[in-house]
Protein: PDZ domain-containing protein
Amino acid sequence: FHTDELFSVRRSGTKAVLSAAKFLLGVSSSLDGEPLRRCSGFWIDWDEERKTGLVLTTARLIRTKDAPVSVWSGGEEYATNADVTVHLLNGTSAKGQLVYHQPHYDLAFLNVQMDQPIKLPSFNEEDVEFAQKIFRLGRDNALNLRITYARAEYLNPTMYERYHNIYFRSPDGHGDDNEYDNGGPVIDLGGKVVGIVNDPERFESFIPSSIVLNCLDSWRKYRHFARPHLGMTFKAIELLEPAHVDMLWRMYNIDDGLVVQEVSKGSNAEILGVQKGDVIESINGKRVSTTIEFENMLMSTCKVRSGAEVHISVGVFHTLKKERSTIELTTNLSELGEVITS
Structure:
């Protein structure tokens, strides 16, 4: 921690990290007596009457099979019958009860019986800014605190990733990628949680607090969180190379919105004429600039029970025709990971 890169944030960073460490836990899973995964997690709720704490972690904790090609192609498998252990800060362990997992966001909730109240985190409701200083936290298999200093970076995802992530930019450009950090909190210099670590080994990314809080809100209301599957993937114009943005502006007088990358075969979007290269400009009348904004709009406007039918108004600029239209997409809310077929 005492390095030149951290000199300017050493005092505030130390205070923030040590405060967050009090709600940071180790979690592990096994299946049929064989170790499965070791990750991190953190307390998010406490039930005084039942003496039960709720832990948020990654659903990778119980994943037995990754998607063979891309998360958008599906194929992940989860062992909901896996044995889960929560490793407490006093060196003891407790049985964790898996109460819910959601494949699209790869989040999971665990109930843990405790004799005394636990420290809960504070969330920053606003997402981090580009290049903001942050810390990624985790605990290794000996419960030692793992600290990774980085800056937040907004990027368009690759075809292999979901589009609700922010990325870590380490000072040397090479992060300390370790599976132990999966499911651990990401904090700002004030010690507030700004996200949860998501697959640091492959993409060095985290799910921002705005989406986590939307998920928590739905969980408290319905005991699940579902989202509409619109059958499209996107890239934000503002995160493209400047030359690409300039070309879009010169050709179409557009410099904001989401460029459609894929349209799922047979989806309502395809039936209504959306094609690759078209630009999504608004959702339910509200302008949209980033995929994280887009995801939060969907979750905020579609907070009803899983399986319910929803209608979403989408403003589209059709690049081939050079004309705008507003389409009404009808879909059902689903707790499953969205699959795009070609």
Notes: The radius of gyration is 21 Å.
